[in-house]
Specification:
Blueprint: H1 2-16, E1 47-59, E2 61-64, E3 66-68, H2 70-79, E4 88-105, E5 110-127, E6 138-144, E7 149-159, E8 163-173, E9 181-182, E10 192-193, E11 206-207, E12 210-217, E13 220-231, E14 239-240, E15 244-256, E16 259-270, E17 274-275, E18 295-308, E19 311-330, E20 334-343
Antiparallel strand pairs: 1-4, 1-20, 2-3, 2-19, 4-5, 5-6, 5-7, 7-8, 8-11, 8-12, 9-10, 11-13, 12-13, 13-15, 14-17, 15-16, 16-18, 18-19, 19-20
The structure holds copper (II) ion (CU).
Copper (II) ion (CU) binds near residues 40, 42, 48 and 103.
Length: about 350
């Protein structure tokens, strides 16, 4: 009799400790919606390779919650504190990012990961009243190359049959360039450094701790994640980018075992920059102003994921619902994230 009880206990314990590919964690909803990372572990010895593409589109300026057209954006800078947009105002921006994401399960409870970023940033502008190349004309600047590299470990805090609670011990390494110059804005008259949002990295080591909770049901899964991005100290240009806090909640609904759809709400808070790059005067353009970087954004995410013979395809469209920005900044209209991944 006691042997039977022992055998049953053994089976129950074995089932409970296999949080790997089978059962609830091997379906189309095994990863969070496409824009998120740090939500899942891998089995010991298992690798994951992912290619991910993001396109964020920003059109028009916003001061607080109020939208401003291009001429109003230039006019706003004449009386703002500090005065800005005398040289130019941004009018829209396309921020693309190619990402290569590697994960490897080290133990049952620890997965290492690294992510290489290749941003490609294009910004359109209108020239302001003090620009030697003539007010009211337009120009475009572009920057691309390596961004900052994300590395970290995901640690299991708690799991049972249908719950996972993970801690993200993550950070970033300043591999992205933060000081390139251009003479395009002034029509060749003056060489100036690219303003803050045109730069490829933060220039600092950043701590990126986060925590994720996921719960699996027969019909889908629910997840919630707090993720941060916190620069440590200042970079060699004597500034640091803002702190970032992202609070996400999502629900993924299984259409079949290999197909799911998701809905997500993201709260994003950013603080303003600290310090100042001495080569980026506030009066020239609003994207040079350290106190015009913070704000709050509420995003919606509408996603789908499909498992096709071991390949996971994950896509998400992210319209902005509400934005309240410090000073004047380009508003975010929408983002699109798509990824392919495979574990082996
Ligand atoms: Cu993975």
């Amino acid at each position: 009799m006691s042997k039977v009880v022992l055998a049953i206990c053994f089976v129950v314990v074995s089932l409970n400790s296999s949080y790997g590919h089978d059962g609830l964690r091997g379906r189309a909803d095994k990863h969070a919606p496409a824009a998120l990372i740090g939500d899942h572990l891998h089995d010991p010895g298992e690798w994951m390779v992912e290619y991910r593409y993001m396109n964020m589109y920003m059109d028009g300026n916003r001061a607080g919650t109020q939208r401003l057209n291009d001429t109003d954006a230039v006019a706003f800078g004449a009386t703002s504190n500090p005065v800005t947009n005398r040289g130019a105002s941004p009018t829209n921006m396309t921020h693309e990012m190619h990402m290569v994401h590697l994960m490897r399960g080290m133990t049952e409870d620890v997965t290492f990961y690294a992510m290489l970023m290749l941003p490609s940033i294009t910004m359109d502008h209108i020239r302001g009243p003090m620009n030697p190349a003539g007010p009211g004309t337009s120009f475009t600047t572009h920057n691309s190359g390596f961004g900052d590299t994300t590395i970290g470990a995901l640690l299991r805090l708690y799991s049972d049959e249908d719950d996972d609670l993970l801690f993200n011990l993550g950070g970033s390494v300043p591999t992205g360039d933060i000081f390139r110059t251009t003479s395009i804005p002034t029509g060749g008259a003056v060489e100036q450094p690219l303003p803050y949002p045109m730069r490829l990295g933060s220039g600092t080591f950043n701590a990126r701790p986060g925590v994720t909770w996921k719960r699996y049901f027969e019909f889908g899964s629910f997840g919630s994640q707090l993720q941060t991005d916190l620069p440590i100290g200042r970079n060699y240009r004597d500034y640091s980018v803002g702190d970032e806090f992202r609070l996400n909640s999502w629900y993924s609904h299984l259409v079949g075992r290999n197909l799911s759809t998701s809905i997500r709400i993201e709260n994003l808070w950013r603080t303003n920059y600290d310090g100042a790059d001495p080569m980026t005067p506030d009066a020239v353009i609003s994207t040079n102003v350290e106190s015009f970087r913070g704000g709050y954004t509420l995003n919606l995410g509408l996603g789908a994921a499909a498992l096709v013979s071991g390949h996971l395809l994950n896509v998400e469209f992210i319209p902005m619902l509400h934005q309240d920005l410090d000073g004047i900044q380009l508003e975010t209209d929408w983002s699109l994230v798509a990824s392919w991944s495979r574990s082996f």
